[in-house]
Amino acid sequence: MSANGQNRHARTGRLARKLAVAGTGAAVLALPLIGATTASAATPAAATTATTAAKTYPDNLDGWIRESLDIMAQHGIPGTYEGIHRNIMRESSGNPLAINNWDINAVNGTPSKGLLQVIDPTFQAYHVPGTSWDPYDPVANITAACNYAADRYGSMDNVFSAY
Fold first, then answer.
1. Rounded to whole angstroms, how far apart are CA atoms 86 and 98?
2. Residue 84 has pLDDT above 80, yes or no
3. Is residue 139 within 8 Å of 127, Cβ to Cβ?
4. Which end of the chain is more exposed for a tag (fewer CB within 10 A), N or C?
5. What pTM value is reported for the model?
6. Is the pLDDT of residue 154 over 80?
7. Rounded distance, CA 1 to CA 19, Å?
8. Which of 71, 54, 56 has its CA nearest to residue 139?
9. Which residues touch 14 (CB under 8 Å, ≥6 apart)?
């Protein structure tokens, strides 16, 4: 034990913690002025604020796919940007208001709708919480269709023709 009554390892540990904090940039300047407890208490609040900010997406095909992928990730629905984009281009050429009024579904009274040409019963059965109930809503349409494709084919990535 040292002359001032502190264990040598305790002083060394404090020094190591101070040196570790020194690598954080602005916190180094603030520590002598406001104290370590205030500086470290401010850090988690700033980090929390930054991570809880709402993510925004462009209102276009790229944004719709990216927003859907984020929602799909939250719900464990597999799929990639490329697989979704490929199927959208085949099904609707990227038109979220596309409707098929000529195939067997339309003849039976349930036309395929939206970017991934989903019929209403399928959309309702595979709707993903947190998305709109409107089958023409691009994000809701993509997410429900990918949920269906995951259930039936393992992923939208495995779909290479009408499904």
1. 16
2. yes
3. no
4. N
5. 0.68
6. yes
7. 23
8. 71
9. none
